[in-house]
Structure formats: structure tokens, C-alpha cells
């Protein structure tokens, strides 16, 4: 609907109708205004499948939703490193929404994986904001191409489940901008989501639903968001404050309570009615965007989308270990499938995104379709409790002995990870670890397939030949896993998160969860691989890691310029060759490393990636374009992105810890950060500034008859050798100006004040 017509429609609404439009009619619908022909529309979970509930609706999915298709969860789809695969997922969900009359999907979920313990990490994409924002952007693009809205969530800093409705995420400005806001920024700017869902938690003491800096200053004014903001379900704290901050829609229904608060605030003058009108316009703009683009021919094709789910999961599976090329398996060899998840896979997480799948394809279903007698099955464990069932255990070990290969399907049960609570540790159930070790002891050819939503410790990693990370792969996970195990599909997933050796190694280990409802992000920008790579720290598997059944070589890294200004784009190209014997897909990762920074920066940061398919012997050239942001950090002095002049290394990697090609580029800053000096400014920071150095040397030269180093050299001060040149240089670098009064004869305070004035002029 045109903007002018929307304004005319709102002008006809009563104050009570306008206030009522700003909260839901029930759990899943906006309010209609029947006398004016304003329709209600439905919103629905979720990020990896349609969870459309009936009238007996509830947020956490206790009541059943319609039978639908569960696609791979975010933990898996990010590991595809494929914008194309995720866009396909979005298109499928968008088509389903059109068929079911759902106007907006509540997703994608794109909070940063600050710690492996976050109970909702299975829904989230990555520890890296660039990967997160690119993958989320692909999903948003796919869904909205079908004229259905998205609601990316949870904006922002919802990185734990513990006390998520009251806890405050405490972080500095640079951390916020470089990591947690950056996860949303690119997606918002490029894809223009129809809505945004804010999070339950506070940010630096202010609830996100009433945080004007986030919702208006940054989201709208800076990034250009033009949709409406809705609360997470039940997240509203102060309705009028939230409306002023830029939160338009409260969900679910408030039973009229907060509607009355809005009416009262307008009537007593504490809320400008123009703000309410603006909120109504934003909501109705999206309502009519869907209503005017309904696809009456759309069909929810369950079987077709099941196949799409399998195809996407095949892109997501990560081959973590393949000793002796034990994989792919041969169909004629005897394999023992062991573990409950071979028959009943754990393929999705618990909570608001839980899909009522119309069918689930297990690995056993997939191999039984071949009508083969070469695959046996032993349940091995019961995941309802972490206790060894001795009968199942013995049966599994015996099955392993009698096979050529044992494939153990292990993972985290629902009780270990879910929305609502955080994990207590990174371990698999003890009964599963015991089973894996026992099977590996009797069967040297043991493969482990993992069904989990977040990293796990692997105490048995040295005892097994292969590990396949399937993540929570959706309802067709069994068929996808079997295709990878038997070589019908060459695995091409790469880890979107680091698998640390142990929980104690994680950067936020000492502060995660917080205390007194405050969670302090003291690790700053050093999240995930930024921390491990900067510390050159051993991990179980690094970010970006994944194996293939073929091999790839990189060559001919070319930068189109050796020196650029910050406003100039840099074009980077690299050749990738399939040097193996079968077709495969490789994920090319580009990292940037600042070599001469005065700031504490990660040793490398992901700034580009692409996935290419290559036949044996084939070479393709992959190209990237890097703009200012690829070299910038967030300056808290100018409250903007800043590029330092200096050398930057362009790194092509197979993971965050395996860099195969590098080249340097010199980047010249075009922004001068204004310096303000005081009597406590150090000699080092003044001499590091060309202007400051010139003024300082001139001033000190006039006082001492030479430079400051001549007057204050070790030789001039101490003939005994007790003070070395290195000691004196270090002392001078950190010496505040005020100390010149003590160490340089003849200098008066008035002279220092004149010097400071000259420095600041």
C-alpha cells in the first residue's frame, strides 16, 4: 500500500485502535481492524522449518503444530559455507509460508556463539560475525523472494539462556560493533528484512526492547532498516518506553493491559501521538506487503521439501577425521550401525523451533532401501538417561566384532541442549563415550557419526579412524549421512565454530553466565578462533576446518594493487585445483591480518569465503573484493570504523589455523583521529604522532640545545652503567609530560602548558 494511503487509513483509526495494533491479537496473529478492512496476519516459527500451531498455541511447542518439514538447523547450515544452499532453504520455507498463509517467519536466529555452552547454539550460525551475517542474509533473501517476511533474531547479545530474561550483557563499544552488532549489520543493510525481533536480555543495563540506541540510532538511522521491530515472546518491560525507543509490536497478546498504557500515555501527554502513528504505519506497511502479494497457487509439497532438506544437509556435513581413507565405505563390506541415533536420529533441537516432522529418514531407513544384508544394527544405548544398559552394550560390542567396519551414531540427547537452559559441560553422555571406546577396542575400523548442536569433547579421538559431524541435520539427515558414508556425496562442510580441546580453554570460561544478573564480556573481540589463533593455541578442530574425499591445491594468489587508500577496493584472486580423483567442493577462506596495528587486534579475521565445485584436474579462479571494512577496527575515539595506515596480510586458508598463501598490501588511512593531549600524555604517544614529534623535538631542542634523547640519555644521567639505553628508552616511552618538570632542568609549568596548547592547536 502506498505511504499516503497508509497515512489516510491511520487517520481514520481511533486512539484505542492504534494502540491495539501495537500488540498481538493472540499468540501468533496481529490485530485486525474490521471496520476499516485492516486484516490480521500470522507470524510463525521458525528458522529451519514451519512451526505453524493451531489455536491452542504455546511458545515452547508443548502443543503440536502442523505436520511440516524440518530442515537442517543453523549449526549445520552455517557449516555449509554455501550462500546458495541456504538461499534454497529460504525459498522452500517462503513457499511453505505462502501455502499456509503465514506472513512472517521468526528467524533466522543469528546470535554469536560466544561459548559452546549456550543452550540455543544449535539454532545460531557461528562464532564469526561475517559468516553469520552472510549466511543469515542468504536465508532472508530466499524467504523474502517469495513475498514473505523474516524476523532475524535476537537483536542483540542474547548469548546465554541462563537468566536470559533479566540478565544484562555488559560489553564495551568496540566489542559490540565488531562482533555482536556485526553479526546483524550486513544482513540488514543488504537484504532489508521486513521485521526484526529484539531479545529478552538487557544490554549494558537497558532492556533491548527499550534501547533507543540499538533500535533507532543504529538499526534504523545508521543501517536503513525500514520494517517494524517486535519483541521476543513476553519480552516487554515498559511498553511506553519501548514504543519511544522504536519497538513497535509486542508479542504475544497483552490482554489489553499495555494497550491501555499507550492510550493513557498519549492522553496525559507523556507519549507523542505521532510516535504511535509512526509505529502503526510501520506495522501496516508490512501487513499489506504480504497481503498484496499473496500467492494463491503456492503449494506445501512435503516430499519435495524433504528432498531439499536432504540436499542441503549433504552440503553441511563436516568430515573431521578420515585416517587411512577408511571412508567412503564399500557397499559390499559388512558394516555394523551402532547407536540409537542410527534408527531414531536426533535431528533438531528443543524449544520454540521444534518442528512436527511429517516423516524422519534415519540412516537405517536409507540403507534398508538398498535391500542389502551387509548392514547390521545394534541399539547400543538408550538416551533417556546417562547410564549404560549392559545388555545393549554387550550386543553392540559383539556386532562390531563381526563386521568389517563399525559406524557409531552418537550425539547429545535433548536433555543436554535446548532452549531455556545452558549446557553444564562439553561432554557426550558418559555411556556413549564408554561405548565408543569399547567398540574401538575390538574393531580397528571404527567410524563415529555425531548428532549434536554444538561442540563436544572427544576423549576417544585417537582410537577411532573417522569422525563425521552431521550436526542437527533435519528430518532427512539419515539419507544425507549414508550418502556421505558410502561416497555418493563428497563431504564439503566446514566448521562454523571452533571445537576446543576442553571447556577451560574457551575465551569466556571464567565469566560466561555472569553473576548478579550481569554477564561481563571481558574477552572483548577475542571470540572463538580470534582468541585461539591469536594465542597460537591447540584446539580439537579449528574454525573453517573440514576434510574431503579429494584434495585441493591453491596457487597464483594475485592482488590487483600493492598499495591502496582506504577508500579503494582491493581485488583478490586465487586459483584452486582439484588434485584428487573425484569431484568435490572446496571452501576458499580469505582472512586479513593487520601487521602493524597499535591496537590489540586478532591475528586474523575472516573477510571473505566462497564455495566452488571442481572436477578432478579442474582449476577455477576465485575472486574477492575487499573494501574499507576488511581492514578496519571500530574506534571508540571517533565512534566509527577506522583503518590504520600500514601493512596488511591477505591470507588464503583452509581453516583459521591453516594458512596456505599470503601477500602483503600497504593501506593508507584517509581518516585522521584527532589527538587531544594533556599533562598526562606520554612521550611515546606524542612522538608516535608526526605532528606531535615535530613540535616536541623543536620545544625540547630549544630547552636542552638538542633533542630530548640527548639530554636524557643513559650516558648523560649515569656513568656507572646502572641505567641501560633500553631502560631509558622504555621509561621515556611511558613518561607523562608532567615528569619533565622533575627530570629536565629549567622547564617550568607555564612552558609545558604552552607546549600542550601547541600540540592541540
Automatic annotation (TrEMBL):
Keywords: Hydrolase
Pfam family for this entry, one: Glyco_hydro_3
GO molecular function: hydrolase activity
Domain of life: Bacteria
Fibronectin type III-like domain span: 586-656
Family membership: Belongs to the glycosyl hydrolase 3 family.
The name this protein goes by in its record: Glycoside hydrolase family 3 C-terminal domain-containing protein
Amino acid at each position: 500500500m502506498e505511504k499516503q494511503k497508509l497515512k489516510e487509513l491511520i487517520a481514520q483509526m481511533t486512539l484505542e485502535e492504534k494502540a491495539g495494533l501495537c500488540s498481538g491479537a493472540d499468540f501468533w496473529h496481529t490485530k485486525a481492524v474490521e471496520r476499516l478492512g485492516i486484516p490480521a496476519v500470522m507470524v510463525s516459527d521458525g528458522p529451519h522449518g514451519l512451526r505453524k500451531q493451531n489455536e491452542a498455541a504455546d511458545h515452547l511447542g508443548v502443543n503440536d503444530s502442523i505436520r511440516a518439514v524440518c530442515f537442517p538447523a543453523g549449526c549445520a547450515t552455517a557449516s555449509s559455507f554455501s550462500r546458495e544452499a541456504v538461499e534454497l532453504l529460504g525459498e522452500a520455507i517462503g513457499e511453505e509460508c505462502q501455502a499456509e498463509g503465514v506472513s512472517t517467519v521468526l528467524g533466522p536466529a543469528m546470535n554469536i556463539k560466544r561459548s559452546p555452552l549456550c543452550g540455543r547454539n544449535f539454532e545460531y550460525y557461528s562464532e564469526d560475525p561475517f559468516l553469520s551475517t552472510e549466511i543469515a542474509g542468504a536465508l532472508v533473501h530466499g524467504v523474502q523472494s517469495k513475498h514473505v517476511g523474516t524476523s532475524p533474531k535476537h537483536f542483540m547479545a542474547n548469548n546465554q539462556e541462563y537468566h536470559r530474561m533479566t540478565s544484562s550483557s555488559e560489553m564495551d563499544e568496540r566489542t559490540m560493533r565488531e562482533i555482536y552488532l556485526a553479526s546483524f549489520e550486513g544482513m540488514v543493510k543488504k537484504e532489508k528484512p521486513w521485521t526484526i525481533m529484539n531479545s529478552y536480555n538487557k544490554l549494558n543495563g537497558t532492556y533491548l526492547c527499550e534501547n533507543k540506541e540499538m533500535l533507532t540510532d543504529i538499526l534504523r538511522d545508521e543501517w536503513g532498516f525500514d520494517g517494524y521491530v517486535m519483541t521476543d515472546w513476553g519480552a516487554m518491560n515498559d511498553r511506553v518506553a519501548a514504543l519511544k525507543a522504536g519497538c513497535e509490536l509486542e508479542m504475544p497478546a497483552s490482554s489489553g493491559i499495555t494497550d491501555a498504557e499507550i492510550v493513557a500515555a498519549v492522553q496525559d501527554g507523556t507519549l507523542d501521538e505521532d510516535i504511535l502513528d509512526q509505529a502503526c504505519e510501520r506495522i501496516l506497511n508490512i501487513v499489506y506487503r504480504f497481503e498484496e502479494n499473496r500467492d494463491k497457487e503456492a503449494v506445501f509439497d512435503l516430499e519435495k521439501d524433504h528432498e531439499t532438506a536432504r540436499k542441503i544437509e549433504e552440503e553441511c556435513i563436516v568430515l573431521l577425521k578420515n585416517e587411512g581413507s577408511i571412508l567412503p565405505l564399500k557397499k559390499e563390506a559388512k558394516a555394523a550401525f551402532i547407536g540409537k541415533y542410527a534408527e531414531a536420529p536426533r535431528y533438531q533441537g528443543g524449544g520454540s523451533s521444534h518442528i512436527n516432522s511429517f516423516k524422519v529418514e534415519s540412516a537405517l531407513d536409507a540403507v534398508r532401501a538398498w535391500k542389502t544384508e551387509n548392514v547390521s544394527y545394534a541399539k547400543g544405548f538408550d538416551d533417556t538417561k546417562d547410564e549404560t544398559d549392559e545388555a545393549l552394550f554387550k550386543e553392540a560390542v559383539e556386532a562390531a566384532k563381526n563386521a568389517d567396519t563399525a559406524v557409531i551414531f552418537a550425539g547429545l540427547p535433548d536433555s543436554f541442549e535446548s532452549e531455556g537452559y545452558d549446557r553444564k559441560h562439553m561432554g557426550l553422555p558418559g555411556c556413549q563415550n564408554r561405548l565408543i571406546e569399547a567398540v574401538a577396542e575390538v574393531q580397528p575400523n571404527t567410524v563415529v557419526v555425531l548428532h549434536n548442536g554444538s561442540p563436544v569433547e572427544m576423549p576417544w579421538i585417537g582410537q577411532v579412524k573417522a569422525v563425521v559431524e552431521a550436526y542437527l541435520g533435519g528430518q532427512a539427515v539419515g539419507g544425507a549421512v549414508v550418502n556421505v558414508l558410502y561416497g555418493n556425496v563428497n563431504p564439503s562442510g566446514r566448521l562454523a565454530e571452533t571445537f576446543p580441546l576442553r571447556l577451560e580453554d574457551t575465551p569466556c570460561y571464567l565469566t560466561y553466565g555472569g553473576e548478579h544478573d550481569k554477564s561481563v564480556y571481558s574477552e572483548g573481540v577475542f571470540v572463538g578462533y580470534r582468541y585461539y589463533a591469536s594465542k597460537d593455541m591447540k584446539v580439537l578442530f579449528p574454525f573453517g576446518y573440514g576434510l574431503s574425499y579429494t584434495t585441493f591445491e591453491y596457487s597464483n594468489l594475485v592482488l590487483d594493487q600493492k598499495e591502496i587508500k582506504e577508500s579503494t577496493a582491493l581485488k583478490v584472486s586465487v586459483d584452486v585445483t582439484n588434485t584428487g580423483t573425484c569431484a568435490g567442493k572446496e571452501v576458499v577462506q580469505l582472512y586479513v591480518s593487520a601487521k602493524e596495528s597499535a591496537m590489540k587486534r586478532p591475528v586474523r579475521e575472516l573477510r571473505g569465503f566462497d564455495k566452488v565445485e571442481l572436477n578432478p584436474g579442474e582449476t577455477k579462479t576465485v575472486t574477492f573484493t575487499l573494501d574499507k571494512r576488511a581492514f578496519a577496527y571500530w574506534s571508540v575515539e571517533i565512534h566509527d570504523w577506522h583503518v590504520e595506515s600500514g601493512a596488511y596480510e591477505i591470507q588464503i586458508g583452509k581453516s583459521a589455523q591453516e594458512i596456505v598463501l599470503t601477500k602483503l598490501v600497504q593501506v593508507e588511512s584517509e581518516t585522521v583521529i584527532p589527538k587531544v593531549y594533556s599533562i598526562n600524555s606520554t612521550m611515546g604517544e606524542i612522538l608516535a604522532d608526526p605532528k606531535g614529534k615535530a613540535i616536541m623535538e623543536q620545544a625540547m631542542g630549544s630547552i636542552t640545545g638538542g633533542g630530548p634523547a640527548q639530554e636524557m640519555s643513559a650516558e648523560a644521567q649515569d656513568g656507572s652503567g646502572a641505567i641501560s639505553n633500553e631502560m631509558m628508552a622504555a621509561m621515556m616511552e611511558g613518561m607523562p609530560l608532567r615528569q619533565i618538570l622533575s627530570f629536565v632542568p629549567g622547564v617550568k609549568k607555564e612552558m609545558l602548558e604552552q607546549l600542550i596548547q601547541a600540540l592541540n592547536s
